[in-house]
């Protein structure tokens, strides 16, 4: 018999989202929490759920989940949520741009920039200073 696992539950949830069965997809995602024991893994699983919803064209629901996750987690997780949320806004903006909906695209690009505050940007730059290229 097949034994349930963290990866199996996540995979099933993503597959169901891909088939546009969003309510059914939440069940294996929620079951996946049985296999997580640390706060970091829990937040990671919640991020995966949001990304799966986004990839299934449930953009508003995904961004809402990220915003809620960002407001209820400690600072380190907030930054991760902000980065993912900015990326999702950017992707929606690119979709709007491809469909020549320029005003909508501009709004999403602005939301992407505004999602990550200046203090967060400083934290990102200081953490990844070693990747800066000097010309």
Give structural notes.
76% of the residues lie in helices and 0% in strands. Helix 1 runs parallel beside helix 3 (39-55), helix 2 packs antiparallel against helix 3 (39-55) and helix 4 runs antiparallel to helix 5. The chain has helices at 6-18, 22-32, 39-55, 59-72, 75-98, 102-115, 118-127. The radius of gyration is 17 Å and the shape is flat.
Tag the structure with descriptive keywords.
flat, mainly alpha, 135 residues
What is the β-strand count? Answer: 0
Task: Quote the beta fraction.
Answer: under 5%
Distance between the ends? 59 Å
What is the helical fraction, as a range of percent? over 70%
Shape: flat
Rg: 17 Å
What structural class do helix, strand and pairing data support?
mainly alpha
Largest sheet: none
Topology as a string of helices (H) and strands (E): HHHHHHH
* Average pLDDT metric: 75
- How many DSSP H or I helices? 7
Low-confidence spans: none
């Amino acid at each position: 018999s097949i034994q349930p696992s963290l990866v199996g539950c996540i995979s099933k949830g993503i597959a169901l989202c891909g088939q546009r069965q969003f309510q059914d997809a939440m069940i294996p995602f929620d079951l996946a929490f049985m296999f997580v024991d640390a706060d970091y893994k829990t937040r990671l699983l919640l991020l995966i759920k949001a990304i799966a919803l986004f990839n299934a064209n449930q953009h508003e629901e995904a961004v809402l989940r990220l915003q809620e996750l960002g407001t209820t987690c400690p600072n380190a997780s907030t930054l991760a949520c902000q980065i993912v949320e900015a990326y999702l806004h950017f992707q929606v903006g690119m979709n709007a741009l491809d469909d020549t909906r320029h005003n909508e695209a501009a709004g999403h690009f602005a939301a992407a920039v505004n999602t990550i505050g200046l203090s967060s940007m400083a934290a990102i730059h200081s953490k990844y200073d070693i990747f800066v290229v000097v010309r």
